[in-house]
Amino acid sequence: MNTTVAVWMVIGLAFVAANLPWLSERIFFLFSGGERGKGAWWRWAEWLALYFVVGAVALGVENKLNGTLYPQDWEFFAVTACLFLVFALPGFIYRYDLKQHLRRRQA
């Protein structure tokens, strides 16, 4: 696997993972969210956990391709967290805006 393909695979994984908390009603995809579904705090906790999971995958890919891990400062993590937040926007909009409009239209 070359570096370009690996980078795009990690970006695609990040996009999918960032949207998963807003598309599922199960807490960490294992437990039922209850009668009212899972709350916003659970969604944000899942989002943060998935950020770290994708980061771990990216570190593994970097180590596999380069044989070493390059040191990063806080700016790198701030930028990746913001990018992960931007990636989550479609799922967030679907959950809190579009889904309600679609339900009204069906009724």
From TrEMBL:
Protein name (Swiss-Prot/TrEMBL): DUF2818 domain-containing protein
Transmembrane segments: 6-23, 44-61, 76-96
Pfam families hit by this protein: DUF2818
Keywords: Membrane, Transmembrane, Transmembrane helix
Highest taxon of source: Bacteria
Organism, as annotated: Thiohalomonas denitrificans
InterPro entries cross-referenced by the UniProt entry: UCP019883
Organism taxonomic ancestry: Bacteria, Pseudomonadati, Pseudomonadota, Gammaproteobacteria, Thiohalomonadales
